[in-house]
């Protein structure tokens, strides 16, 4: 009898893992990612230092920043990074919460897989649990509006706890003032608040400018360095003579023609400046270049000018001053000008900045962030962006919940009650989901050096007794009322984290076959990982 010839349907060097192996490897990779950021959660969370290939250092405890900088390779681990990115884009904060929730859902699913429960049953149960969780979250949330300044301030402080150290109260106040300035019809455009960072001074030196701060200096030192009652012109063209686009040859037969040529160039530029002067403008911001001759005439006319201003800054200037951006100088008139109480060039830590301040009714403002070192300032900026995103999310949805792990314990309690109404194996998956949600308070306790079992037992007892916002006070190690203590978060952080984490967990659980194409890294594959690249995190 002839021996059966083996049949190959995949190219040589293709690595393949399927069934339980594939699931285990994917779950393991996803959990490793979650473990990486887990220690950064909460006020007592630690920071990570990431050094990239060229030696640049990032020190942060912002989940999404850590995962982006880590350059993760494993395909399943990358899916967890996507959860953090989605959370960051949708809400701007709560990235660590979303990632550790996804990791915990997969960890609990693994226990169910060991009990021979089919992955589709688990995913169905998880889906039911996440839908129920969203309803429970909406039901427990409290109302908030843009007029409720005290609650909004607490949201900003809660978001910055653990990131900005001592200056969080001052920074939260600056953010609140900025929001009140730029809010229109209870809506906030995040682009209207510019964060400009400068090293030097301390966090307490940070300030809010009712206008825009530009990282630019005046183009000519003979221009005035300060102009009061500024009339601002915004030009997105260039104050210079355009060079011909094709190769052009000019033939000159005697020197007077050359002089005439130069004189004409000068008179065109002088005409441009005269036009600006006639409009009544005494400050000019130009998106492109300003010719030396034009600079001379502007300085002579006592006009302050800055060039090569970024397009985004031009748009913010238009919002702050009320000016219209014009392309052609010839069309500039008094109608297109904006107003600012003062335009001044100031030196901050050996760098010249242009302050456009005291605008009448600014629709755009600047927060100038100060700090001792480059790394401190960068981390404060990340904290400010997170806090601003939280405020916007809270105002948009109009609902907030208590922090400090209170929401998660209340949610887990609701999910367990929901599980009792189910028959069949999905009930086990819903209970696993409820256990997974408790990873947030458990991690908060662990990061604060407390015993998670004692804390969780005490929390559950308080919630069963009807204390809805009972959470962990990580400073004292006791249970507190998170709402009274001012630990408040936007509802959107929680709903988005539940959505993203459950979706990615369901997606990873459905994978039962991993086919990895051959690559030049095949030789250095980690052993026993089913040939998955980059597992050695």
Can you walk me through this structure?
With 537 residues, this protein is an alpha+beta fold. The protein folds into three domains: 15-143 and 401-515, GroEL-like equatorial domain (GROEL, domain 1), CATH 1.10.560; 145-210 and 362-397, 2-Layer Sandwich (GROEL, domain 2), CATH 3.30.260.10; 213-360, GroEL, CATH 3.50.7.10. The protein has helices at residues 20-38, 63-69, 75-90, 95-114, 119-140, 149-160, 168-182, 255-279, 292-300, 311-321, 374-397, 406-420, 426-437, 439-447, 452-464, 491-509, and strands spanning 15-18, 48-51, 57-60, 142-143, 193-199, 207-209, 212-214, 226-235, 283-286, 304-306, 325-326, 338-348, 351-357, 365-371, 399-402, 470-473, 478-481, 488-490, 513-516. Strands 7, 8, 9, 10, 11, 12 and 13 form a seven-stranded mixed sheet that branches. A three-stranded antiparallel sheet has the order 4-15-18. The longest helix is centred in the middle third of the chain and has 25 residues, at 255-279. It is elongated and about 95 Å long. Residues 520-537 have low confidence and may be disordered.
Structure in a nutshell:
This protein has 537 residues and is of the alpha+beta class.
Largest sheet: 7 strands, mixed
User: Whole-number average pLDDT?
Assistant: 78
Determine Rg (CA atoms, Å): 30 Å
CATH topology of the largest domain, what is it called? GROEL, domain 1
Question: What is the CATH architecture descriptor of the largest domain?
Answer: Orthogonal Bundle
Number of helices: 16
Query: Using DSSP, what is the number of strands?
Result: 19
Low-confidence parts: 520-537
Q: Which structural class do you get from the secondary structure elements?
A: alpha+beta
Overall outline: elongated
- Strand fraction band? 15-25%
Summarize the amount of helix as a percent range.
Answer: 40-55%
Number of domains: 3
CATH homology-level superfamily of the largest domain: GroEL-like equatorial domain
The rounded distance between the terminal residues' Cα atoms is 50 Å
**CATH class label of the largest domain:** Mainly Alpha
Name the quaternary structure: single chain
């Amino acid at each position: 009898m002839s021996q059966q010839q083996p049949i190959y349907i995949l190219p040589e060097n293709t690595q393949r893992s399927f069934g339980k192996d594939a699931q285990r490897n994917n779950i393991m990779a996803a959990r490793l990612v979650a473990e990486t950021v887990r220690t950064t959660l909460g006020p007592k969370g630690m920071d990570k230092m990431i050094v990239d290939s060229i030696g640049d250092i990032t020190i942060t405890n912002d989940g999404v920043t850590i995962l982006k900088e880590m350059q993760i390779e494993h395909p399943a681990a990358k899916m967890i990074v996507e959860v953090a990115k989605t959370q960051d884009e949708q809400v701007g904060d709560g990235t660590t919460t979303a990632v550790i929730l996804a990791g915990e859902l997969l960890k609990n699913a693994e226990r169910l897989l060991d009990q021979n429960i089919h992955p589709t049953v688990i995913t169905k149960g998880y889906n039911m649990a996440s839908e129920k969780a969203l309803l429970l979250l909406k039901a427990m949330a409290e109302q908030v509006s843009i007029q409720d300044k005290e609650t909004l301030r607490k949201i900003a402080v809660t978001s910055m706890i653990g990131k900005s150290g001592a200056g969080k109260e001052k920074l939260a106040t600056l953010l609140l003032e900025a929001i009140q300035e730029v809010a229109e019809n209870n809506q906030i455009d995040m682009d209207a608040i510019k964060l400009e960072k400068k090293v030097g001074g301390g966090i307490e030196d940070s300030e809010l400018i009712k206008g825009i701060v530009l990282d630019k200096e005046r183009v000519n030192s003979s221009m005035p360095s300060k102009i009061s009652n500024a009339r601002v012109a915004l030009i997105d063209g260039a104050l210079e003579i355009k060079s011909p686009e094709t190769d052009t040859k000019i033939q000159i037969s005697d020197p007077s023609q050359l002089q005439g040529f130069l004189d004409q160039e000068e008179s065109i530029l002088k005409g441009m400046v005269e036009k600006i002067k006639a409009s009544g403008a005494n400050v000019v911001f130009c998106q492109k270049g300003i010719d030396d001759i034009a600079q001379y005439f502007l300085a002579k006319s006592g006009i302050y000018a800055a060039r090569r201003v970024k397009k985004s800054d031009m748009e913010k200037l238009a919002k702050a001053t009320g000016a219209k951006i014009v392309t052609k100088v010839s069309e500039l008139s008094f109608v297109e000008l904006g107003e600012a109480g003062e335009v001044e060039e100031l030196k901050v830590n050996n760098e010249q900045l242009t302050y456009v301040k005291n605008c009448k009714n600014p629709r755009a403002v600047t927060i100038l962030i100060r700090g001792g070192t480059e790394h401190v300032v960068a981390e404060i900026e990340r904290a400010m962006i997170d806090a601003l995103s939280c405020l916007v999310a809270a105002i948009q949805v109009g609902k907030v919940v208590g922090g400090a792990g209170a929401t998660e314990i209340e949610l887990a309690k609701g999910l367990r009650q929901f599980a009792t109404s189910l028959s069949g194996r999905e009930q086990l998956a819903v209970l696993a989901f409820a256990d997974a949600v408790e990873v947030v308070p458990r991690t908060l306790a662990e990061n604060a050096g407390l015993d998670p079992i004692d804390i969780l037992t005490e929390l559950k007892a308080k919630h069963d007794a009807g204390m809805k916002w009972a959470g962990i006070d990580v400073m004292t190690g006791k249970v507190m009322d998170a709402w009274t203590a001012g630990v408040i978060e936007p509802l959107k952080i929680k709903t988005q984290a539940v959505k993203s984490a459950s979706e990615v967990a369901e997606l990873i659980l459905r994978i039962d076959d991993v086919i990895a194409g051959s690559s030049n890294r095949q030789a250095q594959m980690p052993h026993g990982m089913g040939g998955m690249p980059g597992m050695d995190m």
